[in-house]
C-alpha cells in the first residue's frame, strides 16, 4: 500500500492518529477544569506508567483541553541535573501570557515577582549559568526571591493563581519526567500544591512519570499521598488497541482481517508505542486491503529490528558493562515478560553481595532504565525489555 498514506506514527510523545483508550482520563480532567473554574476544590494530578504507554501524549492532550477552557498553561520536561527554577519561570511566563489579564498593572506586578524568582541564583551558580528571562518589567524585591525554593515557589504560584482567579480561569503547570525532579524541588512542588489547595486557588500541577513517582513524592512529603490524584496509565485493552489501528485505516479506506488484528495485538501486547510501530511496518509491507495475518508475519521481524535499534538498543547503549550485567541478570530471572525480581535474587545469580551491586542499580534507576517496584524489588521501566535482553545475550 502507498507508504505516503501510512497513518501510523510511532514516536516519542507523538500523538497517534487515534488516541484510543484514554476517554475516561480526558473526561475526568474536563470535570477537574470545570470544578476549579466554579471554585470547587480539586487535587493536582499525577500520571504514572512504563515507557511507551503514552503518558507524554496524554499529558499534551490534557494541556490542549486546558487551553480549550481558556486556561493559562506551561509545560516542563524535568532533568535530573537541572533545578526547576529556570524551566518553571519560562513555563509560568507562557501561562500568564495565555491568560491575557486585562489589567496590565496587576499583570506587571506578578511578572515582577516572576522575574525575581527567575533571577534568584544559588550562591555557587557559575557565570555561564546566569540567565535573563524575557520579562520587560523590574524584578520585585522581597517576594519569591529568598533563595529557598519551597518558600519562593509557594509565593510565586499563589500570586499567579490570584491573576487567574481575577479572570475566572485557571493555570495548569505540566511536568513531564517528573521522577527526575531534584529532591528540593519535589518538596517545593508538594508544598506549593498543598498551600494552593488550602487556598482553593485555581492552579494545578499535572505531572507524568515512571511507576515509582508516587514513592518519590511520598518520600518528600508524607501528605503527598492525599495531595495528588494518581492515575496509572497502562497498556490498551483489545478493543482500544483495535480502534487505534482500525480508525486511521478506515479513513484511508483500508481494513484488517480479524486474524491480522489478532496477530498485531499479540505482537504489540497493547502498548501504544508498539501498536503504532507494528502498524506502520505492516501497512508498508501489505500489498492491498484488507491487511492479512501473513502481512503481519512478514512485517513483525522488520518492526522488531527497528525497535531493537531505536527503542531498546538506544537505551541499552547508555548502560555501562556493570549495569548491563545487572540488567541481563534481571531478564533471566524475570523472564520475557519482564516481571519484577528481588534485588537479593539478582545478587545471588551474579554471585555477589547485594551491597556491591547498589551502585549499578542506583545508576540504572537514575538513567530511567529500571525502577524500584516495591522495597527490595526491581523492574524494567521499558516494556518487553527483558525479552530484548534475552534475545541479545551480548
> CATH class of the largest domain, please?
Alpha Beta
The secondary structure category is alpha/beta
Instruction: Quickly count the helices.
Output: 16
CATH topology of the largest domain: Rossmann fold
Global outline: globular
- Radius of gyration over C-alpha positions, nearest whole angstrom: 23 Å
| Termini gap | 37 Å
Average residue-wise pLDDT? 92
What is the architecture of the largest domain at the second tier of CATH?
Answer: 3-Layer(aba) Sandwich
Helix content, binned percent: 40-55%
Largest sheet: 5 strands, parallel
**How many structurally independent domains?**
3
The fraction of residues assigned to DSSP E strands is 5-15%
Give me some keywords for this one.
single chain, 394 residues, alpha/beta, Rossmann fold, Arc Repressor Mutant, subunit A, 5-stranded parallel sheet
How would you portray this structure in words?
- With 394 residues, this protein is an alpha/beta fold.
- The protein folds into three domains: 23-232, Rossmann fold (3-Layer(aba) Sandwich); 238-315; 319-391, Arc Repressor Mutant, subunit A (Orthogonal Bundle).
- The chain is built from 16 helices and eight strands.
- Helix 3 runs antiparallel to helix 4, helix 4 (104-119) runs antiparallel to helix 5 and helix 10 (258-268) crosses helix 11 (272-285).
- The longest helix is centred in the C-terminal third of the chain and has 24 residues, at 293-316.
- It is globular.
- It starts with 22 loop residues before the first helix and ends with a helix.
Amino acid at each position: 500500500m502507498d507508504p505516503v498514506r501510512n497513518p501510523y506514527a510511532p514516536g516519542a510523545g507523538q500523538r497517534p492518529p487515534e488516541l484510543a483508550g484514554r476517554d475516561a482520563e480526558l473526561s475526568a480532567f474536563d470535570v477537574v477544569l470545570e470544578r476549579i473554574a466554579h471554585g470547587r476544590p480539586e487535587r493536582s494530578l499525577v500520571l504514572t506508567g512504563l515507557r511507551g504507554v503514552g503518558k507524554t501524549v496524554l499529558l499534551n492532550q490534557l494541556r490542549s483541553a486546558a487551553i480549550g477552557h481558556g486556561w493559562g498553561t506551561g509545560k516542563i520536561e524535568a532533568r535530573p541535573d537541572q533545578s526547576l527554577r529556570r524551566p518553571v519561570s519560562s513555563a509560568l511566563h507562557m501561562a500568564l501570557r495565555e491568560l491575557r489579564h486585562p489589567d496590565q498593572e496587576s499583570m506587571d506586578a506578578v511578572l515582577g515577582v516572576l522575574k525575581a524568582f527567575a533571577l534568584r541564583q544559588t550562591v555557587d551558580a557559575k557565570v555561564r549559568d546566569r540567565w535573563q528571562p524575557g520579562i520587560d518589567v523590574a524584578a520585585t524585591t522581597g517576594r519569591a526571591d529568598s533563595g529557598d525554593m519551597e518558600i519562593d515557589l509557594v509565593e510565586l504560584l499563589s500570586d499567579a493563581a490570584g491573576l487567574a482567579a481575577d479572570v475566572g480561569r485557571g493555570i495548569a503547570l505540566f511536568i513531564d519526567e517528573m521522577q527526575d525532579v531534584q529532591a528540593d524541588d519535589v518538596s517545593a512542588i508538594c508544598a506549593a500544591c498543598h498551600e494552593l489547595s488550602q487556598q482553593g486557588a485555581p492552579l494545578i500541577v499535572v505531572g507524568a512519570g515512571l511507576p515509582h513517582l508516587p514513592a518519590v513524592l511520598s518520600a518528600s512529603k508524607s501528605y503527598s499521598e492525599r495531595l495528588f490524584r494518581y492515575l496509572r496509565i497502562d497498556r490498551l485493552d483489545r478493543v482500544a488497541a483495535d480502534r487505534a489501528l482500525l480508525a486511521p485505516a478506515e479513513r484511508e479506506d483500508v481494513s484488517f482481517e480479524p486474524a491480522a488484528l489478532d496477530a498485531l495485538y499479540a505482537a504489540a501486547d497493547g502498548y501504544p508505542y508498539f501498536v503504532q510501530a507494528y502498524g506502520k511496518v505492516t501497512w508498508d509491507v501489505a500489498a492491498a486491503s484488507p491487511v492479512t495475518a501473513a502481512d503481519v508475519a512478514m512485517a513483525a521481524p522488520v518492526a522488531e529490528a527497528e525497535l531493537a535499534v531505536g527503542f531498546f538498543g538506544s537505551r541499552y547503549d547508555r548502560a555501562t558493562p556493570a549495569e548491563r550485567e545487572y540488567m541481563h541478570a534481571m531478564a533471566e530471572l524475570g523472564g520475557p515478560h519482564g516481571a519484577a525480581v528481588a534485588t537479593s535474587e539478582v545478587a545471588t545469580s551474579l554471585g555477589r553481595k547485594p551491597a556491591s551491586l547498589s551502585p549499578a542499580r542506583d545508576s540504572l534507576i537514575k538513567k530511567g532504565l529500571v525502577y524500584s517496584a516495591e522495597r527490595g524489588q526491581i523492574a524494567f521501566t521499558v516494556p518487553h525489555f527483558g525479552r530484548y535482553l534475552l534475545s541479545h545475550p551480548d
